[in-house]
Amino acid sequence: MGTIESTAGSSEDKSTVIVVEHLYKKFGDNVVLDDFNLKVFTQENVVVLGKSGSGKSVLVKCIVGLMKPDSGRVYVLGEDIATLKEDELDLLRTKLGFLFQSNALYDSMTVRENLEFPVRRHWEGMEQAEIDSKITEALENVGLEDTIDMLPSELSGGMAKRIALARAMILKPEIIFYDEPTAGLDPVTAREINALILKMKRKYHTSSIIITHDMECVKHTADRVLLLLEGKCYMEGTYKDLEQSTDKKIKQFFELES
Amino acid sequence: MKLWTLTEGNKEFINETGSITKFANRFFIVGMKPRYEFKELLTQCYLIGYKSLPLVALTGFIMGLVLTMQLRPSLIVYGVESQLPEMVGISIVREVGPVITALIFAGKIGSSIGAELGSMKVTEQIDAMEVSGINPFKFLVATRIISTTLMLPILTVLADAIALFGSYIGVNINSVTSFSLFFTQVFQGLDLNDLLPAVIKTFFFGFAVGVVGCYKGFNSNKGTKGVGIAANSAVVLSSVLIFIIDLLAVQIADLMGLNY
Ligand SMILES: Nc1ncnc2c1ncn2[C@@H]1O[C@H](COP(=O)(O)OP(=O)(O)OP(=O)(O)O)[C@@H](O)[C@H]1O
Ligand SMILES: [Mg+2]
């Protein structure tokens, strides 16, 4: 492990965008992450698979610094996020997009304002026309142009998810974290979302961590799959490896499908 | 012999006092640094200050009127009925105006800040703001604390003025006084030493309401119940703090010889 540690976090190491080392996190007696390790390389879609309550959301929240791990290190774009000052962290986060499992749309703002909010802050002095075109583009991507003046409370669950997705993507960030991007969506829309995730990678060279139970989504978007089980990385491989595996615990995920 | 044992209850009290102090301290360290959220600050001043005007005006008016009608009989007993405007003026400006206005303010604004930030916390909107690189402490907390600190003194001065007008009407129920005579008498009884400490303490009242409301909302527990508790405890704690600050203020003013 020594060689990995020595290169992790050094900014010359362009090939990795996220390095997670020996991550521990527990809530009371509930050990959620137990020596978890992960690397994400540039322009790679990594899918984290795991049962409900296995700690997938906790993992991504630890990576972006919303939760403090009990021990372990997290490097994002070469920076150790535990040592960053508040404004340095703010700056780093402008390069990240995050889709919350709960969507987390600002409920006092309309859809337009939800999308405009991050744009206005990061490109100050941008022309209104340009902002509008970005918003329209983001809404077109998720197929919801006509919701622009609605409030989040007026959207259905799936619509809110797609708006949240549009918001996570609007700044064209270097890394996007998708926490269950297709949950609660019909198969047709889910397929469009999968295509969109791929498009983000191809067109804007984003790397991403995708959390999902949806095997269709895994099949289409994953370059590499990781199975999170009992706080550890149980297995790692491509979708094919997973599909062909004879391991009971891995097979379970496919059986659920049929 | 143990004089003081730490039970769970007072341990929690001490912990909470520490956390609120830290929270307030963070306001001076983080909240005062650029970038400044002027637009949000103005919006909050409008919501917190301007939107509280009708309520504060109504309570102020009634406060002045009632105080006058309650004081009159006692003053008649001592044969100093003519001192009524001075008496009312001093009590309103020094104590009743600032404290009643602050309590009303704590009830209206403290609870709404607690509930708003609490529900934003619970639905992960604060987290969402944080990961998009917008510092929620600056955007949500600092703007609200600054607004409450600046708006409450203004509201108090207005409430004082309206209360004095209410008092003028109260005086005229039983006798006839001209508007100018009444206010001449009021201002004869008042000087800067009455006004200054009273206004200064309202800045602290406003600061307390803002800090407590934001702290409670920011640290709200999951669920609808958590939001309710955040709103409720914000009002209770900021009301208690208003009285504690009032107590300190009168002691300090006394030591400085401003109470005579
Ligand atoms: N803030 C918290 N306080 C206490 N326990 C928590 C907290 N957040 C998560 N947990 C616990 O951590 C564990 C993992 O939660 P997490 O939300 O990461 O699951 P998940 O893998 O995302 O599940 P799902 O697929 O259902 O979203 C759960 O047992 C949960 O009870
Ligand atoms: Mg989850």
UniProtKB/TrEMBL annotation, chain A:
GO molecular function, one term: ATP binding
Keyword Nucleotide-binding: yes
Domain of life, source organism: Bacteria
Pfam families named in the record: ABC_tran (PF00005)
Keyword terms, alphabetized: ATP-binding, Nucleotide-binding, Transport
Xref: Gene3D superfamilies: P-loop containing nucleotide triphosphate hydrolases
Residue ranges annotated for the ABC transporter domain, each copy included: 18-255
SMART domains with a match to the protein in the record: AAA (SM00382)
Protein's name according to its UniProt entry: Phospholipid/cholesterol/gamma-HCH transport system ATP-binding protein
From TrEMBL, chain B:
Cellular component aspect of the GO annotation: ATP-binding cassette (ABC) transporter complex
Coiled coil: none
Keyword Secreted assigned: no
Keyword annotations from UniProtKB, A to Z: Membrane, Transmembrane, Transmembrane helix
InterPro entries on file: Permease_MalE
Residues that span the membrane, as ranges: 48-67, 195-215, 227-253
Molecular-function GO terms, alphabetical: phospholipid transporter activity
UniProt keyword annotation of Membrane present: yes
Protein name: Phospholipid/cholesterol/gamma-HCH transport system permease protein
